[in-house]
């Protein structure tokens, strides 16, 4: 079973704290290229030094900014591998899935399902409120975005999944001896991690319902499916297809996307609807396809 693969007597919780510090430190090191680029523009090209996150997001051309931001996740992913392999003496597969090998068909199915929903919902909102959008498409910048996004965004999303649904979920299972505590804690921390996103500043704390709810969905499908494959596919589709389709001046990713949202954002039904309607439908789809049973035990039971 997935959580049980991380249950070892020597896997005391302080190791997970140390491992988390190492992963965060690697991520910080991965931000050095961004800092070097900022200093170069400041001292050589005499651009004013950016004094806020928003200023940094608009300091470079969008593709350059995206590339420099995502590089830190490459460092973090390498750190996760090092921590799992050498600090915890586990195989990388053991924090990925309970299956004998990675099930790429599950990753692809989840990616395609959520990509389809993202594209359909974007088209619906565009046709319903065309005045909220402008065409942002420029062929060459978009092509570069496709290349950068296809390579680096899955690394970014996979890094987050390995941290929360893999590494920390097993860590909290070691600490608690049950399944509900890892599910709730990783969902809460995942949501709070997005507090610094510009969307929170623009839309208020109500949007945390969406972030925490998304973390809960990803945790549920990981526990029910005894592996992260579905979560990996969903998260990659959510960020990659979203980055390709729509950007805005207040979103976490500034991209050369097809559309630009110029509306004034509000945390209303579009924040609550995915959590209370769309995500349960998604769970039904996955549950039917993969014959999930014994939901209460898998989500709240004790670790044996």
Automatic annotation (TrEMBL):
Listed transmembrane segments: 16-40, 66-87, 107-128, 140-159, 180-197, 203-223, 230-247, 267-286
Assigned keywords, A-Z: Hydrolase, Membrane, Metalloprotease, Protease, Transmembrane, Transmembrane helix
Domain CAAX prenyl protease 2/Lysostaphin resistance protein A-like residue range list: 142-241
One Pfam match: Rce1-like
GO BP: any one term: proteolysis
Gene source species: Flavobacterium restrictum
Protein's UniProt name: CPBP family intramembrane metalloprotease
GO MF annotations in UniProt: endopeptidase activity; metallopeptidase activity
